[in-house]
Structure formats: structure tokens, C-alpha cells
Amino acid sequence: MNTPALATAVDLISAPLIHKGKVRELYDLGEHLLIVVTDRISAFDYVLDPPVPDKGNVLNGLSAYWFEQTEEIQPNHVVHTDVTKLGDFVKQPERLAGRIMVSRKAQRVDIECVVRGYVTGGGWRQYVETGEVNGIKLPEGLRKNGKLDEPIFTPAGKNDVGHDEDIPFEEMVNRVGREVAEELRDRSLKLYEFGRDYCAKRGIILADCKFEFGLIDGQVILIDEMLTPDSSRFWAEENYALDIEIDSMDKEPVRTYLAGSDWDKNSPPPPLPTEVVEATSSRYREIYSRLTV
Ligand SMILES: Nc1ncnc2c1ncn2[C@@H]1O[C@H](COP(=O)(O)OP(=O)(O)OP(=O)(O)O)[C@@H](O)[C@H]1O
Ligand SMILES: [Mg+2]
């Protein structure tokens, strides 16, 4: 890896743009969906400037890797990741190599299927306020970033405007029906356990993660991305042992820089200095090689 940064693919693709997220772009190929992972990076809900070289390739490469590793236990949406098969849909295919995924279109279930093995982030904030996370009562006296005895399933309603909304499991049942809710919960927990055990062998803690599912001909399919740093928290074991204020492996340089700047988090953030961008790029490459090589 060592790809020039790509901020957007809109000029490189001749298919309708369906959706532009903070990081990824979705194009309509007719029968299939084209997902392009750019090098954009976000923090505190802002897209930062400039993009981070290799981030898109790492995210897409990790997703593709995990989808393949788990396809026996969980069917997924991947058709292929080969830019040369896209023919006239793309210009300058070399700029898109490694960052595309052609997927089957699914009818999305509007729930983010979150699994937490540790109490951190938004889960920690809920616990401090209520002693519960998404309606699940947890033991008293847990410490921030502490490991839970068992992983918990904490769904969120997908909300296209604004923030996803944490909901108790019973609310998920109301929204999607008991059968689908239980199936998605069980599959999510199984996939988390797979990822957790796999990462542990490589000295990485999978603190939590998010999956999305869709339906194709009545079958439950894993869609979107899978166990990437944008959808999961990876902690290096060696840092976890040292530091109670552990940050995820990927965005640590960015957050440290922003925390030390005078940015107020309510206006566009300052541009990232070159050394912060480079440090972040190497974090992504490191995660990729620690997990897949
Ligand atoms: N196979 C699929 N079929 C249908 N929809 C899919 C499929 N795979 C992914 N999606 C949807 O594509 C979208 C990808 O968007 P993306 O995650 O980039 O942005 P976002 O979630 O809207 O916002 P954010 O930038 O905050 O992540 C998601 O809405 C996801 O549910
Ligand atoms: Mg998303």
C-alpha cells in the first residue's frame, strides 16, 4: 500500500451516486451496488481535511478480508472487489483499485447491531447515568473501559438525519419483529465472538463493533462494512495494559492533535498537520498488517 489520497470518487465513476456518507460513496450499478471507500476521515462528526492516504484501502481491504473469513458462518453482500471488472463505469481504475466493493442490493434492516465486550464510549456514558446500557442492567462498580463478563447486544435505530438512537432490545423487537430481532442479535454476537477471538491472537482487543444486515429473498445477509476501524474499536493490548485512557488504534493521533488545539468542536476543525496525517496513515497500515498478514 502507498496510494495517493482520494477525497472523492465522483469524477471517476459514471454511475449514479446514491449516497455520500462521511467516508464512503455508494453508486448504483443497476443490478448491484458499488461502494467506494475514500480516504476521508471524520472525528466528532466532522470530516477533517486533508484525507488520510491508505485509509480507504485499509478499510475496504479489512472488510473484504473479514467477509471472506466469515462467509461460511454468515452470508454477506460481497460480489467482488475487482475494479477491472467495472469496465466503462470507471475512469482511471488504478485510483480506485483496492477501495471498491461491488455488493448485492439488500433491503436494509434499519438497525445498527452493536455488540460491546467492554464498557466504553457511549456505553460508558449510559452506564454512569443509569447503571444500564440500552436497558441492560450491569453490575455496579464497573470501571471505564473495563471488560464485561459477557458481550452484550445494544442495538441502535438507524436514523438518516442526525444521530442513531440507542434502543432497548424490546424496542428493536417492536420495530422489526421478534424473529428478525433475535436472529440479528444472535448472529451479531457470534460475529463479534469470531472477531474478538481472532483479534486476540494478534494482540488486539476488539472492544466493540457494529454490524448491519439486510434481507435478500427472505435471507438475512450481512451488508455494509465489517470489523473496520470505522465500525469497531480496536485497542492494542500493550496499550490497554498500560493506560486506562486508552484510545482506539486508528484515530489516536488525530484526537490528540485536536484535543491540543483550540478547536471548539462546533465549527469546521483546523486542517491536520502533515505529521498527524502521516502518523494516522501508518496506524491504519499497522492495523491492517497486524490483522491480516
Ligand atoms: N448491500 C447493501 N444493500 C443496501 N444498502 C447497503 C448495503 N451495504 C451498505 N448499505 C448502506 O449503505 C450506506 C453506506 O453509507 P455510509 O455508512 O457511508 O454513510 P452513513 O452511514 O449514511 O453515514 P456516516 O457517514 O455517518 O457513516 C448505509 O446506509 C448502509 O446501510
Ligand atoms: Mg454508516
Automatic annotation (TrEMBL):
It comes from Candidatus Cohnella colombiensis. PROSITE patterns: SAICAR_SYNTHETASE_2. The keyword Translocase does not apply. GO terms for molecular function: ATP binding; phosphoribosylaminoimidazolesuccinocarboxamide synthase activity. This is Phosphoribosylaminoimidazole-succinocarboxamide synthase. It catalyses: 5-amino-1-(5-phospho-D-ribosyl)imidazole-4-carboxylate + L-aspartate + ATP = (2S)-2-[5-amino-1-(5-phospho-beta-D-ribosyl)imidazole-4-carboxamido]succinate + ADP + phosphate + 2 H(+). The keyword Nucleotide-binding applies. GO terms for cellular component: cytoplasm. One of its GO terms (biological process) is 'de novo' IMP biosynthetic process.
